Amino acid sequence: MSLILAVTLAFVAIFIDYSRISALKAKTERLVHAATRSVMSAYVPELQRSYGLFAYGETDPSLIFTGVLERSLIYKERSDVLPITDAKLVSSSVELSRELGSYEVFKTQINEEMKYKAPVNFALEVVGRFKPMSQTMKEASGAVEILEKLQKLYDKREAELDKMVDLIKKAGQRTDDLKRNIGSSSSGQISDIQDVPLSGHVANATDMAAQYDDYKFQKERFSADDTPPDSTAVTDTEESNPGFFESIRMSMRIADYESGSQSVTSRMNTIVSRAFPPHSRDLTQAKEHLKKAQELNTQIEQVIAAIGDRSADAAYDQVSGSDIPGADGGPSGSPKSVQENLEQLVLKPTFFGSMNTHMQHQETDFISMKSKVDALEGILPQAFSELGLSTYTLKSYVASAGQVTSFYHERYGSGGRTIQVIENQLAEHRKHDEERKQLEKDAKNQLQQANELIEFLSKSKGHIEDFQKVESYFQENVSLNASRVEASKADKLEQDAAAVSKDSMQKMDGFFGGMSSMLDATGDRLLQNEYASDHFSNFDLSKIEALAKPGAKIDGAVAAELLSIKEQELEYILYGFGDPGANLAAAYGEIFAMRVAIRTMEALVDPKILALGNPLVILAKAVLEGLIVAVADMAKLATQGHVELAKTIPIKLTYKDHLRLFLFAHPGNDNRLSRMLALIRFDTGVNPDDHYTYLSGEAAISMPIWFLPGVMHSLNIGGDSGVGSEYTVDIQADYSY
Fold first, then answer.
1. If DSSP codes are grouped into helix, strand and coil, which group holds residue 631?
2. How many helices (H) and strands (E) does the chain have?
3. How far is residue 247 CA from its own chain's centroid?
4. 560, 543 contact by CB (below 8 A)
């Protein structure tokens, strides 16, 4: 019985100590977890209040951790209570890690802060607002993209045709003086050249042919006279020796006729000979310009044929097809009707064929004219020889040269019929160009107003030291995360209104693309965008008036305060310029671009504008209307603080609403997180890179073994260390914000 009792007591004793060990483990685990929570309760209040972020403060974590454990292990002495565990702290240690400035940690805390609110806000305030206009905007964006391409190709084609016409005209005018040297003989009829007495004065080829008959007669008469005048009988008067003086006068006339004829034909030949190489070169270059124009015309056809093949359209369709309720209203009409008239911008093959034919005929006619002029000069030696020519033959040469010269110049010279035909053909398909160019000029004036303010803002200065400080914080955080700085690029100020309209539509493509990629409302980027718009300040657009007043001192204290980093945190996050005015200029420019896109879309569905017919005129008018209303929208946004989304969607959008939308349009990157963290550090004075969000705490707690410590040690009950009469439990607990 004693043996049985001893074994039984030993067995019970073992389970008593085993129960105490289990209790110690449970107690130790609870204490260590409580201690870690106590340590992490010492977070930075400024971060939590302003930004909903948690990071450990400046207190020594080991003091809190050890203090909580020690105080928890102190028992009040009670005479009627048996200390079952009688535990004591052997050792403790803590380790902080995972800086708030780390991208992964920062993203996690943003997600916790925004996971419920952001998806709802995004669905109702972003997608819901723009859903009604998605299809019309898709069509408008496609129409503007096509029309802008066509306009550039059209203008290039017309410039090539203008160069062609200039060269054709230049070639035709190279021999304008030839007709004057031919004279009045242009019909080709010999009868038009009447014989006249030899005067010796030859002003043109017609004079030469008209005097030739008398020239031959006088030359033969004087050469056949065997009794020349007596030169010895010369007296001071002509009456005393009339034959001698008549002979002298006639000889002079004959000589003048011959030299004058040679001079006229030589001038004619020189004009034609000098004109021949450049004339040929002009027409060759004109044909090259015509070929380039034809190639551009083919490109126009290809652009028209590719309508409807846009990758950006999928985003509009996804937004339109989402199950998120859309706002009431929406644009009526469609810009598709513009596409039905695009074919009128294409020149038919017959046009280019006729231009080639005109130039071939001009080249052939010039060669024919040159040959006739060369032939006329070539017969002069025979005409002045002893045998001479028949008057009929010389007249026929002159008449033939006059005919081809007159024919050439009536067609290709200054004011020639063929030139007029070509210009009329060009004018026919350009009949709307004057109206379009006037509209483009007016649009350029409207655009200049917006560009002047954007340029003014970009040059504004103030509180540059604060920007430099924030930029240094930004660089430090980028280095901490081993990331890469992506340089911010300012949009170039376009002077061409159509290019601005196209750029505005491309921005809308990006905006709808951003919306479509976030329709599942689960992405980190969505939560980060909403976090930025909720927790950071933005500029008061109404203050632009104060900055833009004539004579305003941009470097003054008031203006500098308006431009401080604290007044444009959201703009800095969005655009990333370390410059007081650049972020505001970028924001203003992008808001203006969105307003231009929306207002241009509305103009493209306006029946009055569509009734203009010509696609390029419709584009110019739509862009002008879009710019005019967009400029008014910007003024309204500054004075009233809001503007309606569209005519048919009377939802009020503030300046901040626009920035919030642009967060979706811009591609997200880690630099945006670094800028947020830099602003948080600047605002609170707390460096997220130096404050931690994760704690690992470890403690060793021991208690005395009551029964059979040797047996307990040999059996190794509980799996932990038992040294002599003490049993120690090691517990580690982790905690993260």
1. helix
2. 29, 6
3. 87
4. no
